[in-house]
Each structure stands twice: as C-alpha cells, then as structure tokens.
Amino acid sequence: MSQITAILQSGTVATLSNGRHTWTADEPLAAGGTDTGPNPYELLLSSLAACTCLTIAMYCKHKKLSLRSVRASYDFARIHADDCEDCDMPDRGFIEQITSNVHISGDFDDAQKKRLAQIAQRCPVHKTLAHGIAFEDNATFD
Known about the structure:
The protein is α+β, with helices and mostly antiparallel strands. The chain has helices spanning 40-63, 110-120, 124-131; strands spanning 5-10, 13-17, 22-25, 66-80, 94-107. The longest helix has 24 residues, at 40-63.
C-alpha cells in the first residue's frame, strides 16, 4: 500500500511526502500559481512514465534482454467525446485521454519487440488508470 500526504503551504504550493521523500506541486503561472513544481496532472503522468520505465527494465532484467534505454512520454488532454473514434461513451461530453510514446532501445528480435510493446501497457499504474479506481472519500473538520 502507498500513502502520500499533501500539505498546502501557501497560495497554490503543496508539499508532498511519502514519509521518506518530499517534493512540491504547484500550478503554472497562467493558472495563478507560482510554477515551483509540476502541476497535479504532470505528477500523475510522471507516475505513469516512471512505472512504465521501471516495469520494462525489470522485465528485461528478468528475461536477460539487452536493454540500453527506455524513454516514456505521456500527454494528457480533454477531448470532445464525439471526436474520439476509439471511445465508447460519445454522450459523455468530454473524455480524458492519455497518449503514450514509449521508446525502447536494445537488441531485440521481432517477437521480443512485440512483447515489450505489450509490457509497456501493463505497468501497475497503467492498469490502475485503464481499469478505473474505486474511491473511498473522507473529510474531517476542526
């Protein structure tokens, strides 16, 4: 299980911690922030990109494949559902869409390349986002 705590510092700056590491989130200047850290969507995409790279690296290590490098880039956009050819919910208005670009460098045959492309989509964060999340929301007040 993972746990992250965020504490609003001032304005739009939040300090995040997992108990071992601390980092900052903020909004960009155009959104009224001070741009001292990535925004929440960039943090979400960074989790996905890191998980993809680590999953591919661990798979290659386990299979003793000659991996030279992995680069994962993700883009987030809200698109009109009517403009999404692959979406099955056109009456929803907007759809949040993540587009991936994963570059894997190494000495691989065609079968290994095909499998690595599948592995790139099977990191735990990707699977969580693709399958949906059940929220249990709680709020307390002083």
